Amino acid sequence: MLHSGPVPDVRAMPEIREPFSQTHTTLLKLQARQCRFIVSEDQSKAIFCGSETQEGSSWCPWHRRLVYTKPLVGRAMPGAASRAKLG
Question: InterPro entries of this UniProt entry (predicted)?
């Protein structure tokens, strides 16, 4: 079994409802505080989720969970030590 850390307990995560398709919108109609997650299969005609976002986020809670991963505590990214010496 390949896995490099603890498996998150999904029971501890709050339930988030999937966004409604009625909020889907195009780039030109996208407004502030609307989810920018592309939900269409055809990338030439990008359709965005359009659901309400929380302040400072580009995604609704549903899509934020798909695109954001918490950084691992205590693990430095490769090359971080050498970059720190340069600064």
Answer: GcrA
- pLDDT tens-digit map of 21-44: 889 999 999 999 999 999 999 878
Q: Looking at this protein, which amino acid is placed at residue 34?
A: Q
Would you call 59 exposed, middle or buried from its count of C-beta atoms within 10 A (0-12, 13-18, 19+)? buried
Does the pTM of the predicted model rise above 0.85? no
Domain positions in the chain are 21-68
The helix or strand, by DSSP H or E, that contains position 65, with its residue range, turns out to be helix 61-67
Residues 6+ apart with CB under 8 A from 61: 16, 54
C-beta separation of 34 from 20 below 8 A: no
Q: How far apart are CA 64 and CA 66, in angstroms?
A: 5
